[in-house]
Amino acid sequence: MEVNIKNVLVVAQKEFADNLWNPRFVSLVSVFAIILFSFSYRDSIKGINIFETGFVDVTQIIAVFLPLLGISLGFDSIIKEKKSASLNVLLTHPLYRDNIITGKILGAMITLVLVVFISVIVSVGTILLVSGTQVSFAELNRILVFTVLTYLYLSTFLLVGIFTSIISKNAINSLVNGICAWLVLCVVFGGLSMMISSTITGQSVFDLGNNEKVLDVNSQLQKLTPVHYYSELIMGYPCMTWGGFSRANPDAIILFDTNYTLGQWIKEYWVDFLILVLMSLILLIMSFVSFLKQDISN
């Protein structure tokens, strides 16, 4: 492999421009911005102080639905070039495969920065402006950490989209694969893990007098989805997928709760952060290896 920074930046610039002016991308960002604004405004008029209780509704919207934006950025990033035969044209120039995949991922990652920036401004900004909450340096630090965590979480699904774009035969298959991954990991996983754990143990989650085993199995199964780690990092909740059930932890540390220091928060959740990073890293490696080994002559 030979990485040429100039070539990588050219590919990244083209990918960023393609995403930015894509009507699909603009439509999705607009829809999600409106949804985030609506939930944020509703919380703010209720007088919710996010620096005491966090904001569950907005966090759940981000955790469950915004991964669709990540997948939409990546699902056709490679396949569209293959089907247009532009990859073969690019490779006739002094541009290597690793330059192409690096540029593609970099361009998509830069676009994702814009998505996260808009999401944070709309959600946190609306609550702060409407509620009139005073923001100090400590609160700004929490917002910055929240932004970084949201970016890391959504990048996992962006890389899922890029990986499906590499291994799929066409854009439709890639989109279907990406949506299936989103549905399983973000929407139905909570209910699915509850059913599986109940079947394995023979207990009902809702049988409060006899449900320790099923709750233990359920909590372990929930660790298979990125939503689990993002939810714990932001709100201290093990699961935010629809239909999920988790043990309540009254002593959970909430990122936005300034009664706790960031040091306490890091000590409590550093493993969750590390696993979220590793998920993205594994998907990144899988995408690189799959693209470099793939026959793109057809």
Summed up:
By secondary structure, this protein is mainly alpha-helical.
Tell me what the structure shows.
Helix content is about 75%, strand content about 0%. The protein has about 300 residues and is mainly alpha-helical. The chain has one domain (about 5-185, about 255-290). Helix 11 (about 190-200) packs across helix 12. It starts with a helix and ends in a 5-residue tail after the last helix. The model has no long low-confidence stretch (mean pLDDT about 80).
Inertia-based shape: globular
How many angstroms does the end-to-end distance come to? 22 Å
Average pLDDT rating: 81
**What is the gyration radius calculated from CA atoms?**
21 Å
**How many helices does DSSP assign?**
14
- The arrangement of helices and strands along the chain is HHHHHHHHHHHHHH
| Structural class designation | mainly alpha
Furnish the topology, listing elements before pairings.
Layout: H1 5-20, H2 23-45, H3 50-53, H4 56-64, H5 67-74, H6 79-83, H7 86-91, H8 97-131, H9 137-167, H10 171-187, H11 189-201, H12 212-221, H13 226-235, H14 262-293
Helix pairs in contact: 1-8, 2-4, 2-8, 4-13, 5-8, 5-9, 5-10, 8-9, 8-14, 9-10, 9-13, 9-14, 11-12, 13-14
Descriptors for this entry?
single chain; 14 helices; 298 residues; mainly alpha
